[in-house]
Amino acid sequence: MEENKKSGFGENEKEIVFSQAIKAGKRIYYIDVKKNRKDEMYLSITESKKIVSGEGENATISFEKHKIFLYREDFAKFTNSLNEAIKYVVDEQGEYRPNYPAATEEEGESKMNIDIEF
Question: Which residues are CB-contacts of 31 (< 8 A; sequence separation ≥ 6)?
């Protein structure tokens, strides 16, 4: 994971004060903390997916991007809903752990936890 990238910003570009990149197969998720002109911080979450069209020498590569912006006043609601959705999936299908050995009883509860209190 990349952490704590800082960059300057021009008139139309918002200042990035913190950044993390999560590589997940053909997708990369970027979580950026940005500042607007009033120095208020917000999250910019981007999913970037690599798209390959054609084959061999005629192959072209492009990236499909989707963004959401999450503002401070919505953090608690968003976090609560995300936690509920994740818990539902884990309760229904179990935790997805492809690169880890099976959990033992000594390990206790799942290590996947994003509970944040505001």
Answer: 19, 20, 22, 43, 44, 45
